[in-house]
Structures are given as C-alpha cells and as structure tokens.
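for the writeup, i need someone to sanity check this before i put it in the appendix. the sequnce is what the collaborator sent (i think, or maybe the updated version? ugh). structure was predicted straight from it, no edits. if anything looks off just tell me and ill rerun, i have time this weekend
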Amino acid sequence: MREEREGEIAAMRQVRCGGNGGFRAGPRPSTFSIVAADLAACEWGVAVASKFLAVGAVVPWARAGAGAVATQALANTAYGPDALALMEAGVGAEEALRRLVDADPESEARQAGLVDARGQAATYTGSACLPWAGGFAGE
C-alpha cells in the first residue's frame, strides 16, 4: 500500500513538473470544493465539483454539531471522519487541520478545507499539489 501511494505522489510530481518545470500540454484534472457555515441559520455544508467519478464518496464530509470537511488532491479519506471527531470534541478547525497534516507523512500531496461548529475555517494545500492549487479561509 505504501509503495502504491509513493507511486501516486511521484506521478503527481511528474505531471506538475513536466519539461522546464512547467506543465504538460492538455487538459488538467481539477476538483473544486467549498466548506461553509451560516451561523445565523445554524447551517453548515460542503460541496464539490470534479471530473472524477464518484467524488462525493471521497471529498465531502459533514456532521451536525461538528462542522464540514473537504479533502482532495491525493485525498486522505481519514481526514474527513478524523477532523469531524476532533471538531466535535471542541478542537477548532485550524488546530484540527494542523494535527491531521502533522500526523500525515504524505501531507505534501493533500488539500483540505475545514469549518468548525463556531464557523472558524482553515485550509491547507501541500507543496506537491499543482502550483495554482490553493485555498481561502475567511468571511
């Protein structure tokens, strides 16, 4: 399993780095996600759009009283339930995300966004993700 993951990370780097540090020609697979909270309405949600089939089984996670999570790029599906458990226990989004990233030896290939029950948001994009990949946390 570890060798498989290392191969996937190497493949991501190869696509990203092509000749002269640029990109290879042609369409690039993309996934866009959002996690959000409306504190006045007491609502949290997550949405994702992607060219990848069944992305809804991997990226979006939400739980009442905890918050919402999106995990993508070389997604670690444990980020969803683990982040929700931390946030449900009262850990804020920034700290929960920091703990996930710190414990993940392949975090450089991950992207994640979290919003907690208090409406605080956090985002992370690893260094092995495409250079234009990123996130925004704010109001």
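Residues 2-17 form the longest helix (16 residues). The two ends are 39 Å apart (CA to CA).
thx in advance!!
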